[in-house]
Design goal:
Elements: H1 2-8, H2 12-18, H3 41-51, H4 61-70, H5 78-87, E1 108-110, E2 116-125, E3 132-140, E4 146-152, H6 157-171, E5 179-182, H7 186-189, H8 191-200, E6 203-206, H9 216-226, H10 239-255, H11 267-272, H12 274-292, E7 310-312, H13 319-324
Protein name: Integrase catalytic region
InterPro entries: Integrase_cat-core, RNaseH-like_sf, RNaseH_sf, Transpos_IS3, Transposase_IS3/IS150/IS904
Keywords: Plasmid
């Protein structure tokens, strides 16, 4: 035996192991021997039933195994649950938990000042730990001008209504002239605000529930405010200090800030219609410069033309709609 093993290039011990098949583990790829811990088809179906149940279909396997353990139950590991869900194509959403389809928001178009306003409330830091000051700010969609603002030490529907009433008075808004857009916060949709809007003849418009980007113009304004180089690096000591700072910001924003979306005129110039003369003058300057030195111009001069209409919640055109147009 030893000589035969030497000829074959194997050890005697290996030959002895081969003669005991009951102890041999088949390690060949594609082995028909199933691991002892493999989940049976019956167990697999039971796990799927639990994963897709009303109690667990909105939860992850990590959450499910914890809750089952609290109930004194064990079905399978998180990895096994994820693998089973992947096999049946339910690793993202299960049954009725598929993503909710939001309807398209109402498209609002402003072609002049005081047709559409957007407003919101943002927090300003307070020196008192856990407390904030609240900035109420209303912006005209067409001109981006801040038409009203107030700072208070609380978020309140009555205060919000006062801000809107003040803005309408200052801008001379007539009944049925204005649409006021906001998110779904309680000061925006509360009975006090809705009653005020009805009295003023203002049409309310709201962001869709659970949708965060339906009021982008107000959000962008707050970002501009909080990213100013002179925005305080410490909390405001009192509400008067906060009001003083916001007043300075609004003065700069409305009357000095050359807005990139308005062809670099100020919001107030756009709001009052002065932008038309300003942009016409810029076009004339460029045309004269081209006539004087035409060799410096390879194409048309800059048009200095601002957007005639501003759209809130603009609907995207699908490829099918574009091809049909």
């Amino acid at each position: 035996m030893k000589k035969a093993c030497e000829i074959l290039g194997i050890s005697v011990r290996s030959l002895q192991r081969w003669r005991q098949p009951e102890t041999i583990e088949d390690k060949r790829k594609g082995s028909s021997i199933f691991p002892s811990n493999k989940i049976s088809e019956i167990e697999r179906q039971r796990i799927l039933k639990v994963l897709s149940s009303a109690e667990f279909r909105d939860k992850t396997p990590h959450q499910i195994v914890a809750e089952l353990a609290d109930q004194g139950k064990y079905l399978a590991s998180e990895a096994s649950m994820y693998r089973i869900l992947k096999e049946v194509g339910q690793n993202t959403h299960r049954q009725d938990s598929s993503p909710k389809k939001h309807q398209k928001p109402t498209e609002l178009v402003a072609t002049d000042a005081n047709q559409i306003w957007t407003w919101d409330i943002t927090y300003l830091p307070s020196a008192t730990k856990g407390s904030f000051f609240y900035l109420y700010m209303v912006m005209d969609l067409y001109s981006r001008k801040v038409v009203a603002w107030q700072v208070h030490d609380r978020e309140d529907a009555t205060l919000a209504s006062e801000v809107i009433r003040e803005a309408c008075y200052q801008e001379g808004v007539a009944r049925e002239q204005l649409v006021l857009h906001s998110d779904n916060g309680s000061p925006m949709k509360g009975a006090t605000m809705l009653a005020t809007l009805q009295q003023l003849g203002v049409m309310p418009s709201f962001s869709r529930p659970h949708v965060s980007n339906d009021n982008p113009y107000s959000e962008s304004l707050f970002k501009t405010l909080k990213y100013r180089p002179w925005y305080p690096h410490r909390p405001f000591q009192c509400v008067s200090e906060a009001r003083e700072w916001v007043e300075g910001f609004v003065q700069w924003y409305n009357f000095e800030h050359r807005h990139s979306k308005l062809e670099y005129v100020t919001p107030n110039e756009r709001h009052t219609g002065q932008d038309k003369d300003i942009l016409a003058n810029r076009r004339a300057v460029y045309q004269r410069a081209r006539q004087k030195q035409p060799e410096r111009w390879s194409g048309q001069t800059r048009q200095w033309a601002t957007t005639a209409a501003v759209t809130l919640n603009k609907h995207r055109t699908s490829k099918a709609e574009k091809s049909a147009a």
